[in-house]
Structure formats: C-alpha cells, structure tokens
Amino acid sequence: MPEKAQEVHKLVNDALKQAEGVPLHLDDIEGQTVTITDVIFSKGTYGPYVVMTVVDPNGEVFDVQNGGKLVVDALEHAFENEHIPCQATFVRSGRTWLIE
Fold first, then answer.
1. Domain range holding 43?
2. Is residue 15 part of a domain?
3. In terms of Cα–Cα distance, which of 96, 99, 55 is closest to 77?
4. Tens of pLDDT along 31-82?
5. How many structural domains is the chain composed of?
6. Is it true that the peptide bond before 85 is cis, omega within 30 degrees of 0?
7. Is residue 52 included in any domain, yes or no?
8. Which residues pair with 83 in a beta bridge?
C-alpha cells in the first residue's frame, strides 16, 4: 500500500504572518490626513528614522516608517514639545516628503 503523501508547508503562509507586523511607508498613506498618536525614533544604516503610529481617515491604526529628514525633524520637534498626537498629510515632491 503506498504511503500517503505528506503535505508540504507553504512558505507564503509564514511570509504573510510576518508581513502583518511590518510598518507601512508614507507611500501607503500619501495625501491622506492622518492622526499621529505615537512615535519611536531610531537610527539605521542610512541614518535616523521614525516609526509612527497613525490612525487613517477610516479609523484604522497602522505603523508607518520613514527616514526623510523633514519628517524626522518635524516629528522630533513635535515630540519634544508634547504635540503628539497631531494631524498631518504627507505629500511627495520629487524625492522629498512634505507635510501639510
């Protein structure tokens, strides 16, 4: 009697579970007015960056990361002056992110 073939685990299942915790990027919320409820500052290979917790217009909560100098500097200033939570709209101008 032949053995029953063992089902092979699909790597995509692990990748999807891992991706659930990966922060989005500003591209994913460009042009939307979001509320920034928390920020975490860190240093990476290419310099400082921030992971911010945002609430989108639909009330969904996301972590978004960005290393743009204008964004990091503005959020550091807001954090130091206790202006978090705050609202922002991020728009791209070439390679630079602007805040409206």
1. 23-99
2. no
3. 99
4. 999 999 999 999 989 999 999 999 999 999 989 999 999 999 999 999 999 9
5. 1
6. yes
7. yes
8. none
Whole-angstrom distance, CA of residue 12 vs CA of residue 23? 19
The burial of 35, by beta-carbon neighbours within 10 Å (0-12 exposed, 13-18 middle, 19 or more buried), is given as middle
Interatomic CA distance for residues 8 and 61, integer angstroms: 35
**What's the distance, CA 82 to chain centroid?**
21
Residue 55 lies in a domain: yes
* Assessment of whether the complete model's pTM goes beyond 0.70: yes
Token pair 């400082």: residue: 48
Cβ–Cβ < 8 Å for 35, 54 = yes
Which two structure tokens, joined as six digits, stand for 30? 């460009």
Beta bridge partners of 90: 99
